[in-house]
Amino acid sequence: MMQALEIIAILSGIISVWFSKKENIWVYPSGLIGTILYVYISIKGDLYGEATVNLFYTIMSIYGWYNWLRKDLQDHRIVKVTFSSSRDWIIQCGFFAIIYLLLFLSLSFVKQYFFPGAIPWADALASAAAFTGMWLMTRKKVESWIWWIITNTCSIPLYFIKGYTFTSGYYAVLLVLAVAGLSSWRKKANEQSVF
Questions:
Q1: pTM above 0.90, yes or no
Q2: I need a surface site. Which of 45, 53, 74, 131 has the fewest CB within 10 A?
Q3: Contact indicator for 104, 129 with CB cutoff of 8 Å
Q4: Coil, helix or strand for 141?
């Protein structure tokens, strides 16, 4: 049963990231299936940071879906692929640091008193990078892909250690897609800055 849910979540996630790379609105409805399933899968594997991330993904997917569909009076999309400014970078790094610290402290407490199988530093690192990447994706920031690359790099061994080999492989595929997404969105942002 768990393996079937994992496979459905994986396929949903790959489809979602592929749509994201293409800047296609279907990123959100396809992604919701996987995020909801991964909340359950992560809780079962004592990966509470990842469960929190997937709950955040679910909420942000609904917001991103709305935000990407917004149009101005001339029927043009309001949110376009752009680079982060220096100020944006400071804000996203601060956001990441705060989320990492909160998750690390929470997960350390959970490990000590309830779930000795938790891996606080790695779970918090992957999760905080994912929180940051998802937030930036809803705003179509090129740098969201950098945070996804960090998330995927950390998640591959994290899930492998927990015995979720399919999910570990899934994050390897997502890592490749994130590198491609970074390249694609950089190109789009450069093209849009010309106009």
A1: no
A2: 74
A3: no
A4: strand
Domain count, the chain: 1
Residue 93 located in a structural domain: yes
Query: Phi first, then psi: what are they for 139, rounded to 5°?
Result: -100, 5
The pLDDT value recorded for residue 140 is 93
Beta bridge partners, 77, equal 71
In a domain, 166, yes or no: yes
- Residue 48 within any structural domain of the chain: yes
Question: Is residue 117 helix, strand or coil?
Answer: coil
Tokens standing for residue 20 = 């994201």
Residue 115, pLDDT score? 66
CB atoms within 10 A of CB 90: 11
Class of residue 116 by CB neighbours under 10 A (exposed 0-12, middle 13-18, buried 19+): exposed
Q: In terms of residue numbers, what domain contains 181? A: 2-70+85-194
- Do the domain assignments include residue 76? no
